[in-house]
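To: structure desk
From: M.T.
Subject: fold request, one chain
Message: Could you run this one when you get a chance? Sequence is below, nothing fancy, just the single chain.
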Amino acid sequence: MFKSILVAVDGSEIGHRALEETLAVARAMEASVHAVHVVQTATYPSLTLDQLEPPDIAQQALLDALDREADEILADAEQRAAAAGVPLTAHKRWGHPGAEIMALARELGADLTVVGSHGKGRLGRFFLGSTSSYVVDHAASTVMVVRGEPDAS
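Reply: Done. Structure tokens follow.
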């Protein structure tokens, strides 16, 4: 029986499917749900937070865009959860997605972590894929990997 579920969301179709699967499990088990979106700063090596004191105009514009995108993705997750009648707490992190997901899972004491098998954020950066493998390899509790629909070819 799961009491606390963490789901990684990235705005992709597979991320939406992972959230829907999470909400179904949470309803059935009356579990709390936490959604996390991690802004993958490794994709933008010049944007490590400790090196942005102060960021130049272009770096700040990119940081602002990534921050807005993360807020939109998490707001969408909250709306989907509310429509399903499941309370959801949103979390935004910056850094390595797999490591940040695992750190938050430990902080929350999540007994189930849900990730998509792969995904792609709206600004064209990969969020899941190697991330799902990382989560599976480093998790201390159960992991559910939601796969996409098979190709119809």
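Reply (cont.): The two ends are 38 Å apart (CA to CA). Let me know if you need anything else for the meeting.
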